[in-house]
Design a protein that fits this description.
4 domains; 12 helices; ATP binding; elongated; single chain; Helix Hairpins; 11 strands; 4-stranded antiparallel beta sheet; alpha+beta
Length: 455
């Protein structure tokens, strides 16, 4: 029996690895934060036992006579901290006694000492505070960035703790808020990155499906991603192959029927030459011509010749200007408004036929065609406007169906076999675009064509 240490490539394993990677990433980021965050990540002054040691020193100094207080204070040992005692009748004690107690930290430490059974006034200040200049034993040149805590003793004297380096962090509430914010941002960043890679195969599958929707004859979808997704893609490819085979068989059958109709139509025309009644002969020939036109249109449509054309980059605005100029040379009112040039990747001959179909419809049923082209970095918007009667709202979508004709204004006598809009929509959708019809205010029809711009 063969064992493999490689985990199975399934969606469940990918989710587990994604969640695990996100957790490991957050932990690593937390370690980096704690290493480089400085005082933000250090324990608060209450958690470092500095206050307890300072309280012991205060009680010890307070218990000895005045002549021993400074030696006892100087002999006290707290890392990176020196202790000095100032008598009650000294100028320094007078300044500290009258200093304002407005700091929130002052109030918190005062309450802490009171809660531990030794109420006293406590002041906190830094080297950039004016109080530091009133301490005769503080050397600013040696320790320019120092922290001070002054505690008042029961006899009016003061004990000043001078820390040359901050060995404690922010208050606990501030630390919790910062830590929660950092963890939330870390989880969000790790989740976004992990989810991006987890959903990458699904996005690729969706892109392939859109490509298939634009061109049903496109090749099979790439089988990539986790096992379940590969199985779904394989099933879709099998279904796609069956549908393509079904459509190709039906298309070949209809194309063959349209082609084979030419022979009996030719025979009918030859036999019609022997009809002596001129009126009946002309009617017969007219019906044969209609049938021949329908067969030719159907054959051209079923062949889908536009899909055999190679895509290339061409000037879409120039193509529309050329169409307008060609019709104008024939004396037909076709006008173009838009940019002089705009590059587009597609099948130029197919687009020319599709746009010509739209212009022909506008001229036949609206007596005038106005082409308006607007382009942006992401989308192309083309309007074909006529000034005819429009079409009923219920038929705005039906007219795209093969061989569909409106009986009143758009019937066989005015031309067309009902395949112009069908063919135009097929060409436009094959390029990832869409087409829709709208009746204009005041009369006329507006054809809206949207296409993705070339990236």
């Amino acid at each position: 029996m063969k064992f493999s240490l490689r985990p199975p490539d399934t969606i469940g394993w990918r989710i587990a690895l994604t969640v695990g990677s996100a957790i490991v990433g957050v932990l690593l980021l937390s370690v980096v934060f704690n290493h480089f965050a400085g005082v933000w990540a250090r324990p608060s002054v209450e958690e470092t036992a500095l206050l307890g040691r300072a309280n012991d020193i205060i009680l010890m100094v307070e218990a000895v006579p005045d002549s021993y207080r400074q030696p006892v204070a100087s002999a006290s040992r707290i890392p990176t901290t020196s202790v000095d005692w100032y008598p009650a009748n000294s100028p320094t004690a007078a300044v500290l006694a009258t200093a304002p107690r407005t700091s929130h930290a002052d109030a918190e430490l005062t309450q802490w000492f009171a809660a531990n059974g030794h109420p006293r006034t406590v002041l906190l200040f830094r080297s950039d505070d004016g109080l530091s200049g009133r301490l005769p034993r503080y050397d600013r040149t040696r320790d320019p960035h120092a922290y001070f805590m002054a505690a008042g003793l029961s006899d009016g004297s003061w004990l000043v703790f001078t820390a040359t380096r901050r060995a404690w962090g922010l208050p606990r509430p501030a630390q919790i808020a910062i830590a929660l914010g950092f963890v939330a941002l870390s989880i969000l960043a790790a989740s976004v990155v992990a989810t991006y890679y987890l959903s990458k195969p699904l996005r690729r599958f969706a892109d392939d499906l859109r490509r298939f929707g634009g061109d049903p004859r496109s090749g099979p979808v790439r089988e990539a991603g986790p096992r379940e997704l590969r199985a779904a893609i394989a099933a879709f490819n099998a279904l796609q192959a069956q549908l393509r085979k079904f459509v190709e068989d039906r298309t070949a059958m209809l194309a063959a029927m349209s082609h084979d109709l030419r022979t009996p139509l030719t025979k009918i025309r030859l036999r019609g030459e022997f009809i002596e009644d001129d009126d009946q002969r002309e009617r017969l020939f007219r019906d044969v011509d209609d049938l021949q036109a329908m067969a030719d249109s159907a054959l051209s449509f079923f062949r889908d010749d536009y899909k055999d054309e190679e895509a290339t980059v061409f000037d879409f605005a120039g193509l529309l200007r050329t169409i307008a100029d060609d019709y104008s040379d024939q004396g037909k009112p076709v006008f173009y408004a838009g940019p002089e040039r705009f590059a587009f990747s597609g099948r130029p001959f197919s687009f020319r036929r599709a746009c010509a179909n739209l212009v022909d419809n506008a001229l036949k049923y609206g007596n005038r065609a106005e082409l308006e082209l607007k382009c942006s970095a992401t989308q192309i918007h083309l309007k074909v406007i006529d000034h005819g009667p429009g079409i009923p709202s219920y038929a705005l979508e039906k007219v795209f169906a093969p061989f569909y004709r409106l009986e009143q204004s758009r019937n066989r006598s005015t031309g067309g076999m009902g395949l112009g809009l069908t063919s135009a929509r097929a060409v436009i959708q094959a390029h990832g675009g869409d087409i829709s019809l709208n009746n204009r205010q005041g009369g006329g029809l507006e054809v809206n064509v949207t296409l993705p711009a070339m990236s």
